[in-house]
Design brief:
Elements: E1 8-12, H1 19-28, E2 32-35, H2 37-45, E3 51-52, H3 53-57, H4 72-79, H5 85-93, E4 101-104, H6 109-114, H7 119-124, H8 129-139, E5 145-147, H9 153-162, H10 169-197, E6 211-216, E7 226-230, E8 242-245, H11 251-264, E9 271-276, E10 279-285, H12 289-299, E11 307-311, H13 317-323, E12 328-333, H14 338-344, E13 351-354, E14 366-371, E15 374-379, E16 391-392, H15 400-413, E17 421-425, E18 428-433, H16 439-456, E19 467-471, H17 478-486, E20 489-494, H18 501-510, E21 514-517
Parallel strand pairs: 1-2, 1-4, 2-3, 4-5, 11-12, 12-13, 19-20, 20-21
Antiparallel strand pairs: 6-7, 8-13, 9-10, 9-11, 14-15, 16-21, 17-18, 17-19
Length: 525
């Protein structure tokens, strides 16, 4: 018998899409099909002749289906090397018949977890026999074809037609690679579930798993290749958003839109964030989105050109009309009215993304950043400062309005690259200094931008006059604080903790301003 010819296939699948057509094709090549439980019944009900695995092993399925294929007659048929004399002799003497093709996909463990199923149901959806067979078949890919995804049925059919019932070695190897990727992904999901239940965010062995969603045109720059992968498909996230119109999102679009989305999740009131190069150039909250957008745009209308806009309410006709006055790359929102969609449709390249409004909350997630030869892992910075966290360290106390703006500014600072300085007033940023090596430079740049914004708005005074200022980390010297005060800030919020805190407090008191320490730092690199 030709060792490359497929004569016997074992099929056991949870995802039965396309299965009947594929099984009928196999039987058209006189391939014997053996199967298990639910798959066998499904195939029989659709008119296919099937041999039960229990007929092959002479051993019944048991323990509620936990034991079906864990048997030497199955794994021997998958692992036996066709051209090895010892293997052939041992298979013959033990009644092991070869299995040339394995068609298996796994219990829907990830789907069960995502649905909120109870622990016992999740456990029963941890597949044991499936991964074991996949690994056996993939290890012996020289002799066994292992098909783990219905999307590969058509390729296998075409190959078998052209190869007269067999499969090329290159395809066998490719399918085996996919098979081991599947079992690695599956085991990683199970491992993550156990670790999460034990609140073990930093296990000794960390498994990472993701599914490729799409290839991107290129990465940050045209000479870099890139793709989008999703980790948890059920969560509200940029990777799971729905695109309503516009060009394909680029790598940079995804990065900027994610920054905008993460920032907007900080606020319960109607809020708008305008992002450029992963930094906000304007953020505001108000009683309505129209007012919030106007205030956010005023902060830095120049940088807003070609940026990303995120909002936490449905966008209506009037706001859509306002947004169209400024060139924008991406808009992300929980929804768009029919009138807004119609207006935006006049800009064919403008990307509109819809994201699930139910999950617009910050969650305690694990963040992973690659470094040369490894990864840095940390919990997400999801700390939300409240009024009770503030420690007023100056003689002068803040007003209620100043406290509101302090908390607002400090939340924005969490999403600005360090060193970060945020001037805010009336629930809106009025100056943002980001990513400078010196905190003094961040203060001055933010103040200069505020002056420019005021000039463009026809105002005689800088927007930072009578504002509050937030710093993502402590002022190591009074100079950064003094620069902010000179720009017009009369209230300061910062973590504190410098060995020169006393000097900084003294400088604030001398200038009759109020300052609060948070004890929390928001570095972002």
């Amino acid at each position: 018998m030709d060792s490359n010819l497929i004569t016997r296939a074992l099929i056991s699948v949870s995802d039965k899409s396309g299965l009947i057509e594929f099984a009928e094709f196999l039987q058209g090549f006189d391939i014997e099909i053996i199967s298990t439980g639910g798959t066998a019944k499904y195939l029989r009900d659709n008119g296919l002749a099937i041999k039960e695995v229990s007929q092959v092993t002479s051993f019944p399925e048991m323990l509620g289906g936990r034991v079906k294929t864990l048997h030497p007659l199955i794994h021997g048929g998958l692992l036996g090397k066709r051209n090895d004399p010892t293997h052939k002799k041992e298979m013959l003497s033990n009644g092991v018949e070869r299995i040339d093709m394995l068609v298996v996909n796994l219990y829907p463990f990830e789907e069960k977890v995502n649905s909120g199923a109870l622990q016992e149901e999740c456990i029963e959806n941890i597949d044991i026999g499936g991964p074991a067979m996949i690994r056996s078949a993939a290890k012996n890919f020289n002799d066994v074809v292992v098909v783990t995804n219905p999307s590969d049925y058509l390729s296998v059919i075409k190959e078998m037609k052209s190869q007269k019932g067999s499969i090329s070695m290159s395809m066998k190897r490719n399918l085996a690679s996919k098979a081991f990727s599947l079992t690695a992904y599956y085991d990683s999901k199970v491992s993550s579930w156990f670790n999460k239940n034990e609140e073990n965010y930093f296990p000794d062995l960390l498994s990472l798993s993701a599914k490729k969603s799409k290839d991107l045109r290129y990465g940050e720059n045209p000479h870099q290749d890139a793709a989008l992968y999703t980790v948890e498909r059920h969560k509200a996230s940029i990777s799971n958003s729905v695109q309503l119109q516009g060009k394909e999102l680029s790598y940079n679009n995804y990065n900027d839109t994610d920054a905008a989305f993460e920032l907007i999740k900080e606020f319960d009131d109607p809020a708008v964030a305008i992002i450029k190069h992963a930094n906000p150039c304007g953020v505001a909250t108000s009683q309505d989105l129209l007012s919030a957008y106007s205030k956010a745009l005023q902060c830095d209308s120049v940088s807003a050109f070609g940026g990303v806009i995120a909002v936490n309410r449905e966008i209506g006709k009037e706001l859509a009309s306002m947004i169209l006055d400024v060139f924008t790359e991406v808009i992300i929102a929980p929804g768009f009215s029919k009138e807004a969609k119609l207006l935006f449709s006049t800009k064919k390249n403008l990307r509109l993304l819809v994201i699930n409004n139910e999950n617009l909350v910050s969650t305690d997630e694990r963040q992973i950043k690659p470094v040369s030869g490894g990864f840095l892992v940390q919990n997400k910075d999801s700390y939300k400062l409240t009024k009770n966290d503030l420690d007023v360290v100056t003689i002068k106390s803040p007003t209620e309005e100043q406290i509101k703006d302090m908390l607002f500014a400090f939340r924005v600072a969490k999403h600005v690259k360090s060193n970060a300085i945020i001037y805010a007033k009336d629930g809106a940023t009025v100056g943002i200094g980001a990513g400078q090596m010196s905190r003094v430079d961040s203060s001055r740049i933010a103040a200069e931008k505020a002056k420019d914004a005021a000039s463009k708005a026809g105002k005689s005074k800088s927007l930072t006059i009578d504002s509050v200022v937030a710093s993502d980390a402590f002022f190591p010297f009074p100079d950064g604080l003094i620069a902010a005060i000179e720009a017009g800030a009369n209230a300061v919020i910062q973590p504190g903790g410098s060995i020169r805190d006393k000097d900084v407090i003294e400088a604030a008191n001398e200038r009759n301003i109020t300052m609060a320490f948070t004890g929390i730092r928001h570095f972002k690199h």
